[in-house]
Amino acid sequence: MLKKVLSILTLSTVLVSSFNFNTFANTNKNDEVTIQLLATSDIHNKFYPYEYAINEESKSGSLAQIATAINELKTDNTIIIDAGDTIQDNYSELFLNDEIVPMIAGMNAIGYDIWTLGNHEFNYGMEFLDKVIKSSKAKVLTGNVYKPDGTPLAEDYTIIEKNGVKVGIIGMVTPNIVKWDAEKLEGYKVTDPLEEINKAVDELKDKVDVIVSVNHMGESNEYDVKNSGVDDIANGSKDVDVIIAAHEHKEVQKVLNDILIVENKSSGSTIAQVNITLKKDDNGKYQVIDKNSNIIDVSKYEPDLQILEELKSYDERAKKDASTIIGKLEGGDLAPKNEINGIAQGYIQDTALVDLVNEVQLYYTGADVSAAALFSATANMYEGDIKKSDTSLIYKFPNTLYVFEMTGKQLKQYMEWSASYFNQYKEGDLTISFDPESRGYLYDMFSGVNYDINISKEVGNRIENLTKKDGTPVKDTDIFKVTVNNYRANSQILSDVIYKNGDNPKLLEIDVRGDLGGVRELIADYIQNVKKGKITPNVDNNWKIVGNDWNQELHKKAVEQINSGKIKLDKYNNKSITVNDLQNIDNNTNNNNVKVINKKVKKVS
Fold this sequence. Notes:
17 helices; 6-stranded mixed sheet; 2 domains; 5'-nucleotidase,  domain 2; Purple Acid Phosphatase, chain A, domain 2; about 30% helix
């Protein structure tokens, strides 16, 4: 009967937007209360329906649209929550010196109750983060980060009362922030979130009626770090009713260990709606009798006019800055045309695009070798005027540069790790494909050395003919200064992903030329001031893929069939197209021709 009533009430809410679900429910059943959670996460500074990196309107989601949805959905029993990765990206660097950054100004205007910090909140340093925390009207929760003096960065939990129901809300961030922003967190202590959650639960359980854990963590553990994923949290936590997850940018609605878990997509494109219904027992204490969730598509909502006005000055400043002409690209685009639709050429051959990034990194660091990845399969810079926003088209993230001292042996280990991105070439393959367990942003291309990647060899034995720029073979004992971005440095080089048993390269410098900003700002400065506003697409072709000894005629035929849509690539190009795939197409074509002939014969007879 309860489910039937809830269905009717839900329908009523849809049909009459001003209908108050909780008021109606409480009028009929005074011993029942429904608490609504409206949770966002991973908005990444999408405060306006605009992507400043590409200088275009984007109504796929934004804080301004979220405001409209919240105004329509909220009741007297609603708690508004954000689970982190809130202030970074989408030209966030432009507002670092502002008294209040746009996302916090918008969240304050909307009336957020809770904000749990995400890993990207730590990107700009602790002094900046402290300023942002103080400017937030929402209660900031992050119970597993401690300052050098031993005091917590933020509280671990809070209690919010709605209509007599006391809701305990706990907040934690992924412990892997020590990998990504190690230098920013020097002297800080980051603890196991599960231990902190269980400690908070012990303090809360006799004081509240329901417990919600807001964790900036995805479903699964990262880097095999226990309790860095919410599945571990759900399986190990006590008395938690709901987990608001984040970080992985994917839609999640599931129940694990009797805990309802939800997670949002990124850039403000969804809101997680959770309804928790409680009923008083014979002792007058509320008990949870129902939990349900819904993921709301924010693109269906128009932006809230009040929020647009509130944040207008930020938007105008960002658009003006994004549109600034900083130079000109002459002689063609930076990325070549793809031979095969769906396989970015930039992953399988040296390009002017990645060479420009490495050129910039070498110039500002003075390193011998630079490594950079192609963050997006569609990344490009087109011939003509270069706007400041165009640097984001070829370099998506706000990374800074690190410099390491590496031996020739360590450099080759790093290069072998990177080359594991490719599937091993097998006889009969007609295309190059990529490891299903990897992604393009994990595949670095190197400047400052010459090399071949033999994809017919097993992982760990693919880098061949490795020489210095002058053609001298690289020895294991040679010493190189190697520059990489901070993500690669902390996630793979300084951790135990590439190097084992403590044989990591020596870190020489962090945040190189931080006075100018991150890599994107360095690219802009290089174009504008070093190259005097004029660049051309230059490729040094210092590396190539070898070992794919396929029949060229059959490869050409496979390309034609893929580009015509007759053969489809696997998602992320995780499987090579083979000779057998071509034969299957030919057989199907022959069978269809036979059917057509038979039909014609029947008509004639």
